[in-house]
């Protein structure tokens, strides 16, 4: 996107919605324009306005809930195997449209095109993985000490409400939709108002693959108008939120008032621990990928690099030198490794946190505080000589900014890693196999890597400890989060015992 950002974005969007001139919510198989306040979007690479669209508001939620309830009955009436076949077809549709999806995602979110291409393959894999589970997740027969046959059924909630963030719109869309569909649910999906495009496109592809019209409804608009309405709608039986801890706490409170379960996938300040016996070259590559990929806009980013004091100076120098070589540029350029920050609010937060870290005594050894006036670009940044007590070491920055903190012993490394309100992810680099397992067992994190970082797959459960949230949104465990257990008792005796109190 250069001169005609708005035209190019709508052109990419209209590939999935032929003739579309504006963005709206996707309800009951149709793109429905909003009637509320105008939402202005900006090109992250230039900082200039692109398109605007109208907030869908409460009326869109009402229509979506009606459509979802009707479609869910049709979806649940299918055999489990039939649902699996449709879901596998969704994966095929996404692979078929991977390049247009990747371009749309890159243009709207600012993510490098090469990253978006890889993510579309992962999104397809999500539907294929859960397609295989559709007819393999079932209840049990329980040998109760009576004459009854007792068995359990795994049943869907019905309609679930999912909220996804702006940092990985397509990835988190697939991450949430696939297990919910596999277990028979309908979905109201609320992507960030900044990045609704790829979620709308994926919903349309799901219908083209054969799901009932109205099973997935995508709500395009503002959180303050759509979320309270969805949370209070009786059709919605569970809520799933991916985003900041502050907003997650508000979602949990609103859900609790309705006695409605929720899954929260929130932020992190993950510790990436490097011992003096590690392969420092590989650890340096891992540390760079852990924090700089995706411009650091990742909840699992390795934003705290804990380094043994014996190799601290050497390791910091290596990571800093590598950071200077990373190609920062326009999202649609194939050579770009790190793109812009998604939006100005986040851009300003990152700049503030870097300045605060330097003022607090940290040393800027990679990156720059001279920011471009064109677009929301932040160079890969490393702050050395930091302590874990600094705000820059405790607050989630959500940008390509890492702090390097020295430690003396294994015990201190574990204590530093756990000295955080978060508990989403972490890693350790060491050639001592036993040490690697010891630390993995003692660090409070939902995902932990040994001699690697940021490897995530839909087959493995993902979620946090502490203020990073609760529940799991992938792997087999997500199937439990999207179903309820029903216990059924069947009397099998020809002469059942006389119930107490009856002749």
Could you please describe the fold and organization of this structure?
Helix 2 (57-77) crosses helix 8 (223-232) and helix 5 (113-133) runs parallel beside helix 6. Strands 14-15-16-13-12-17-18 form a seven-stranded mixed sheet, with helices on both faces. A six-stranded mixed sheet has the order 9-8-7-10-11-19, with helices on both faces. The chain has a three-stranded antiparallel sheet with strand order 5-6-20. The mean pLDDT is 96. Strand 17 (425-429), helix 15 and strand 18 (447-450) form a beta-alpha-beta unit. The chain has helices at 5-14, 57-77, 80-96, 98-109, 113-133, 169-182, 197-209, 223-232, 245-257, 280-292, 312-325, 344-359, 391-394, 410-418, 433-442, 475-481; strands at residues 25-27, 30-32, 38-42, 49-54, 141-142, 148-156, 159-163, 186-190, 216-218, 236-242, 262-265, 271-274, 304-308, 363-366, 381-384, 401-407, 425-429, 447-450, 469-470, 483-491. Helix content is 41%, strand content 19%.
What's the rounded overall pLDDT mean? 96
- The percent of residues in helical segments reads 40-55%
Task: Report the count of strand segments.
Answer: 20
Distance between the termini: 82 Å
Assign an overall shape. Answer: globular
Outline the biggest β-sheet: 7 strands, mixed
Sheet-strand content, in percent, reads 15-25%
Strand order of the largest sheet: 14-15-16-13-12-17-18
Low-confidence stretches: none
- Class of secondary structure makeup: alpha/beta
**Overall radius of gyration:** 24 Å
> Helical segment tally?
16
């Amino acid at each position: 996107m250069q001169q005609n950002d708005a035209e190019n974005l709508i052109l990419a969007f209209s590939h999935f919605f032929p003739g579309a001139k504006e963005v709206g919510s996707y309800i009951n198989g149709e793109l429905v324009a909003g009637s509320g306040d105008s939402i202005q979007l900006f090109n992250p690479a230039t900082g200039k306005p692109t398109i605007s669209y109208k907030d869908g508001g409460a009326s869109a939620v009402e229509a979506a809930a009606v459509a979802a309830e009707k479609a869910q009955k049709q979806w649940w009436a299918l055999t489990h195997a039939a649902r699996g076949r449709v879901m596998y077809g969704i994966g095929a549709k996404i692979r078929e449209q991977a390049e247009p999806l990747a371009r749309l995602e890159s243009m709207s979110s600012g993510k490098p095109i090469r990253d978006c291409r890889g993510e579309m393959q992962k999104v397809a894999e999500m539907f294929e993985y859960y397609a295989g589970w559709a007819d393999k997740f079932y209840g049990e027969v329980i040998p109760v000490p009576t004459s009854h046959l007792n068995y359990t059924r795994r049943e869907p909630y019905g309609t679930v409400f999912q909220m996804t963030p702006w940092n990985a719109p397509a990835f988190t869309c697939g991450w949430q939709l696939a297990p919910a569909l596999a277990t028979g649910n309908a979905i109201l999906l609320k992507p960030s108002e900044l990045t609704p495009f790829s979620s709308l496109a994926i919903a349309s592809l799901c219908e083209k693959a054969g799901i009932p019209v109205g099973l997935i409804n995508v709500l395009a608009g503002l959180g303050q108008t759509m979320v309270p309405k969805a949370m209070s709608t009786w059709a919605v039986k569970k809520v799933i939120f991916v985003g900041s801890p502050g907003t997650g706490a508000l979602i949990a409170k609103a859900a609790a008032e309705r006695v409605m379960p929720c899954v929260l996938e929130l932020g992190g300040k993950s510790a990436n621990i490097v011992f003096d016996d590690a392969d420092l070259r590989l650890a340096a590559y891992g540390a760079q990928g852990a924090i700089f990929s995706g411009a650091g806009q990742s909840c699992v980013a390795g934003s705290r690099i804990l380094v043994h004091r014996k190799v601290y100076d050497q390791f910091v120098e290596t990571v800093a030198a590598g950071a200077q070589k990373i190609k920062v540029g326009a999202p649609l350029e194939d050579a770009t490794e790190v793109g812009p920050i998604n939006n100005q609010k986040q851009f300003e937060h990152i700049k503030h946190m870097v300045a605060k870290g330097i003022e607090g005594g940290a040393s800027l050894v990679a990156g720059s505080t001279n920011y471009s006036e064109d677009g929301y670009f932040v160079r890969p940044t490393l702050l050395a000589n930091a302590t874990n007590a600094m705000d820059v070491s405790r607050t989630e920055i959500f940008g390509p900014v890492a702090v390097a903190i020295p430690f003396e012993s294994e015990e201190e490394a574990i204590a530093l890693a756990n000295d955080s309100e978060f508990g989403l992810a972490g890693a350790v680099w060491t050639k001592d196999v036993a040490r690697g397992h010891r630390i993995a067992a003692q660090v409070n994190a939902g995902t932990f890597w040994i001699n690697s970082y940021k490897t995530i797959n839909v087959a493995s459960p993902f979620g946090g400890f502490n203020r990073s949230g609760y529940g799991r949104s992938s792997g087999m465990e997500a199937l439990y989060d999207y179903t309820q257990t029903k216990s059924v008792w069947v009397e099998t005796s020809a002469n059942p015992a006389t119930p107490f109190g009856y002749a």
